[in-house]
Amino acid sequence: MPISDSSPPPVAQLSPVRTEGPYRLLLVEDEKITALDLRATLIELGYDVVGVASSCKEALERAALDQPDLVLMDIRLSGSDDGIKTAAMLRARQQVPIVYLTANANSATLARALETEPGGYLHKPYDPRSLHTTIQLALRRHAAEHSRREAHSGERRRHEQRSNELVALAEQLSDEANTDALTSLYNRRFFDHFMTERLQVAQRDHEPFAVILLDLDHFKQLNDQHGHLAGDAVLREVGAALRRGLRERDVACRYGGEEVVVVAPGASLTDACQLAERLRTDISGLTVNCDSGPLTFTASFGVAAFPEHGLAAAALLNAADSALYRAKRCGRNSVVPARL
User: Fold this and answer.
1) In the predicted model, what is the mean pLDDT of residues 298-303?
2) CA-CA 20 to 30 A from 280: which of 66, 97, 288, 308?
3) pTM summary value
4) Annotated active-site residue in 258, 259, 277, 308
5) Has 176 been annotated as catalytic?
6) Residues in CB range of 10: below 8 A, 6 or more apart
């Protein structure tokens, strides 16, 4: 059955460029006597003729199996697929250089052949010197093409690598610009943007939204008694506990000193108070070892919700701050919701 090019060809790969040993040639010629004579001449010229094919199907099979460095292709092959169509399929599959063999061809046929980007043409009968020269020129042209493509591919890879490095650097710088170095929580700069953005979404979609403000109890006293290194260690542990305890949608930001604000999109006042209680329990269970011994500590929480306690960010923060102040006055280590 003749091979058709109706199905999409495989992705073309550049055929390898030989750097040592005789060049491997595939001869595609359906006239047996001509094929035998040409094969003998090529061998005398020092080439390795890896196969002789007489049809499109056989040429494609032999080329895939033997991976020739060059194909000598008779333009006129018997069957529905002529040498030009066969060459086009070979170029698409393997990018192997083609040298056409022809006794005579009209301008239309040569124009079709030219579209396959051949390495050269040989007219029957063949002169050994012209045969050798044409083959060598085609091989050198292919080697140059291979080098150009490799150089272009290498440049593209370097460009892609550089682009990826720049993207990674930009992401790193963005993370550093938005993250508190000590606690690894988001910083005040990020909070201002995130709070505004999520509150706008809550207003637009009529969704609940809550803010939790927490402050470590007696933190100044802890710093004075145990030193700032111990205080920093406590803040790091609190940051880690918050990241573990928050929901996926929540964001914790270091608001200043030992104060942290948690933005809880989609959380009602009840949801936020329950979340704050879990975080309070987590923090009260932490222990930090320092030179003076193990340290335990607690935190107080104030909770405000949209729209009950305000429609704007400033109003919600003021409500949460007032609730936090009451938690401090009422003995600390507690969760207090804002008043209506």
Assistant:
1) 96
2) 308
3) 0.54
4) 258
5) no
6) 92, 93
